């Protein structure tokens, strides 16, 4: 068996997941009733509850998985948060891609180490984190976002979980369909991941930058978005027949012989659809499916965030989330060395 070189540099962020707890990192505390809280370790401070307090210094330097006691004997189990825990509790300005969907995107989109990937609709950076873990230090992820505030939140969250800027990540501001063809060479991208309102508007841009055989995966919220994207792909002819699905996760209650499904579950969050780029000059096979691609004028004019049920996010909330994400990075002493994200070009929404 090949021995690992102990002097070789660890993949980016790996050292954040190993060894004893350090000042500035996040720790998940679970009490004796199973309630969880996440704290950021700060020397000389304490975690306070209605059942006493727990000194952070008891955790700093202790091994992961230890049990510590508060001043009144309350016991806590201490572990580093998993990626799924971090995503659901991190500062956000937009709805995040749930872990169950991120896992499907990585696997069904065949995101592999070293892949060259572009994504659009960065939101709060949840999917960006999963994509960066998949492509690794030697891969490439170029994220496109229309709003400066979302880019700031995503940058803070990515740098928090990786302990600083990731060497494979680039983030740009602007409309995906315009910027990706200006910044990426034709046929140079292995995978395209779109989490946006109207992915069919990006069809030409995707076909331009995606290599033959490359995978395009879309994440959309509604049946109407799914339908229109599928019909646009079929009509274009440069892609394979699209496949679509959704995933639902139901937990189980485990206690002795009382083993049963939980009363609540994570049901519909979004639809996923995958298609692949055909070679230049090739037209996709006619799979003999009946297809009606007509949409009424009312349908075509209804694609706004409010019309499909997305809640409006105030500028104040975005600024607060960006400050929270940035402050977590600075607490760990890992402020970004790179340049700032350029100001977003003015555009209509």
UniProtKB/TrEMBL annotation:
This is tRNA (Adenine57-N1/adenine58-N1)-methyltransferase. Residues 88-253 form the tRNA (adenine(58)-N(1))-methyltransferase catalytic subunit TRM61 C-terminal domain. CDD domains: AdoMet_MTases. It is an enzyme of class 2 (transferase). It comes from the Bacteria. Residues 14-24 have a biased composition (Basic and acidic residues). Keywords: Methyltransferase, S-adenosyl-L-methionine, Transferase, tRNA processing. One of its GO terms (biological process) is methylation. It holds the Pfam family GCD14. InterPro entries: SAM-dependent_MTases_sf, TRM61_C, tRNA_MeTrfase_Gcd14.
């Amino acid at each position: 068996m090949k021995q690992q070189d102990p002097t070789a540099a660890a993949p980016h962020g790996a050292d954040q997941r190993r060894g004893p707890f350090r000042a500035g990192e996040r720790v998940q505390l679970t009490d004796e009733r199973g309630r969880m809280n996440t704290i950021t370790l700060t020397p000389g401070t304490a975690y306070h509850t209605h059942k006493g307090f727990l000194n952070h210094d008891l955790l700093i330097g202790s091994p992961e998985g230890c049990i510590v006691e508060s001043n009144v004997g309350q016991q806590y189990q201490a572990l580093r948060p998993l990626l799924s825990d971090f995503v659901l509790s991190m500062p956000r300005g937009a709805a995040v891609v749930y872990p169950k969907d991120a896992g499907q995107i990585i696997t069904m989109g065949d995101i592999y180490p070293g892949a060259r990937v572009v994504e659009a609709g960065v939101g709060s950076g949840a999917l960006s984190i999963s994509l960066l873990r998949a492509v690794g230090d030697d891969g490439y992820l170029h994220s496109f976002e229309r709003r400066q505030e979302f880019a700031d939140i995503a940058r803070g969250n990515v740098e928090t979980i990786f302990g600083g800027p990731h060497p494979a990540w680039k983030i740009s501001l602007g409309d995906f369909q315009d910027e990706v063809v200006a910044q990426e060479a034709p046929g140079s991208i292995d995978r395209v991941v779109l989490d946006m309102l109207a992915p069919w508007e990006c069809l030409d841009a995707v076909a331009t930058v995606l290599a033959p055989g490359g995978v395009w995966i879309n994440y959309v919220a509604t049946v109407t978005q799914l339908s229109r994207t599928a019909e646009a792909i079929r009509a274009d002819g440069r892609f394979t027949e699209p496949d679509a699905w959704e995933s639902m996760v139901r937990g189980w209650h485990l206690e002795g012989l009382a083993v049963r499904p939980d009363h609540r579950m994570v049901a519909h969050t979004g639809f996923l659809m995958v298609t692949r780029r055909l070679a230049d000059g090739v037209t996709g096979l006619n799979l003999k499916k009946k297809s009606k691609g007509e949409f009424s004028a009312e349908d075509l004019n209804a694609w706004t965030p409010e019309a499909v049920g997305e809640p409006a996010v105030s500028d104040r909330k975005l600024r607060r989330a960006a400050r929270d994400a940035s402050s977590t990075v600075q607490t760990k002493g890992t402020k970004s060395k790179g340049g700032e994200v350029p100001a977003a070009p003015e555009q209509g929404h």
